[in-house]
Amino acid sequence: MLFQGPPTERPAPERLFAQTAGRDRTMLTTDEILKQDDHLIQSFADLNALKQQGGRTVISRAEGAYVYSNDGEKLIDGIGGLWCVNIGHGRREMIDAISEQLATLDFYSTFYNFTHPKAAALAQKIAELAPGHLNAVHFANSGSVANDSAIRILQHMNIRLGRPEKKQVLSRIGAYHGATYLAMAMTTPAYADGWHAAHDIVHHLPSVHHWRDGADASEEEFLDHLISDMRARIQEIGPEHICAFIAEPIQGAGGVITAPKGYHKRAWEVCQEFDIKYVADEVVTAFGRLGHFFASEDVFGMVPDIITTAKGLTSGYQPLAATIVSDEIHDIVSGEGGVFLHGMTYSGHPAAASAALKNIEIMETEGIPENVRVTGAYFEQKLLALRDIEMVGEVRGSHFMMGIEFVKDRETKEGHPPEAQIALEIARACQKRGLIVRPLGNVAILSPTLIMDIAMIDQVADIMRDSILEVQAGL
User: Fold this and answer.
1) Beta-carbon neighbour count of residue 45 at 10 Å?
2) Do residues 283 and 254 touch, judged by C-beta distance below 8 A?
3) Domains located in the chain, CATH noted
């Protein structure tokens, strides 16, 4: 069933209960929480600005498609936690499944010769859902680590095949693959500004953003150019040195960038030709966001050699990620004479695996991916209608993964200067009206829970329109 509106009304809490060792249950005001928060290093934030100006929002409760601030604001969760709360917040079945698992087996590792029922069951379920020959699953606790694992596995595979020099990686401008040392190197260079990363093994192919980088070429001409460039770069580096090409079906934190139609299948064909493994980073796009459990085959018409996923795998209720590899790769790394010297303490954690199994069960029982094919398409069309606003340069994405780019001049596509913080101003205007969106430079990103009904989608579109017009009027 689709979510049919707001949860049962009850007074939103103005204070958050907290339990500290050796103390009775106390109630914390927002100011008290923010004082504690001074010790927290927040991710992807201007830490100096937070010290000087604050501006933090304390989220203390969530239910359905809504979150509540500690000061009582009721907000539509337009970013789904962070691309991840696909089935909505506060599902009792999820909480019970996690609690029951902790009461049965709180933790055991999957190292050496140990396993446990939930990790085994989840690995089998993911293999059943994944396309084609992807039947072996390695668990991690984040999408970044899942992507690191994919590359480490391929490099290890090539060492076992007697070709240790085949370890370089092709990525793309505009990509986002994570924040660990290797994943950051595979991410678009702008994210690594001021940081070191494993740049010596990563090569970035050009941006696939036709609207921004296609000049006067048609989409088909731009696609031909991208594939021609890919071939040239492979031949320049030498295919004998390249182990992988990694690509998101839709680039997420790089700005919700969609490649020209047919790009992924043609890139996959090039990889097959040069014996380069195709890694599909479905950390965001899997588990319903584009209307399917996995998008690679069902949406983009190709079966990669590895799929990585996280986020919607548990709908954010527990941290869990998976690297799903082909039978061919698994046969090589599991062959005689090799030890798989890779893994994390919490790989396949019992509570996280239990959460994923229940999450998948809910998605299948309620037909959430199938519903997204209808409601997500409607959401896409409602946001595309915002293109009639002068400062909206492009609306792009698919289903419940959308980006709106704002420009200073529509004809030249000139963006606003960074100091204008246009998307941030629009995000603030949206939050005043009850909607959380994610600002990213000149782009506002929407990746909501997958349970929004038509009425809520209309509300989100209206809030976006009113907020954009407010900011535009103030320019």
Assistant:
1) 12
2) no
3) 16-90+368-473 (3.90.1150.10), 95-366 (3.40.640.10)
- Render pLDDT for 68-111 as a digit per residue (tens, 0 to 9): 999 999 999 999 999 999 999 999 999 999 999 999 999 999 99
The model's pLDDT over 365-409, given as tens digits with 9 standing for 90+, comes to: 999 999 999 999 999 999 999 999 999 999 999 999 999 999 999
Rounded CA separation 175/166 (Å): 22
Q: Report the alpha-carbon distance of residue 196 to residue 52 in Å, rounded.
A: 27
Per-residue tokens: 205? 């192919």
**Using CA atoms in the order 72, 78, 83, 88, what is the torsion angle rounded to 10 degrees?**
60
Distance CA 398, CA 251 (A): 11
The amino acid occupying position 221 is E
3-state secondary structure of 12: coil
Residue 61 class from Cβ within 10 Å (0-12 exposed, 13-18 middle, 19+ buried)? middle
Tokens describing residue 235: 């031949």
What is the amino acid identity at position 374? V
- Cα 271 to Cα 277: distance, rounded to the nearest angstrom: 6
């390695």: which residue's tokens?
138
CA-wise closest residue to 422 among 436, 404, 447, 401:
404
Can you give the pTM of this predicted structure?
0.93
Question: Which of helix, strand or coil describes residue 279?
Answer: strand
Which tens digits make up the pLDDT trace of 116-132? 999 999 999 999 999 99
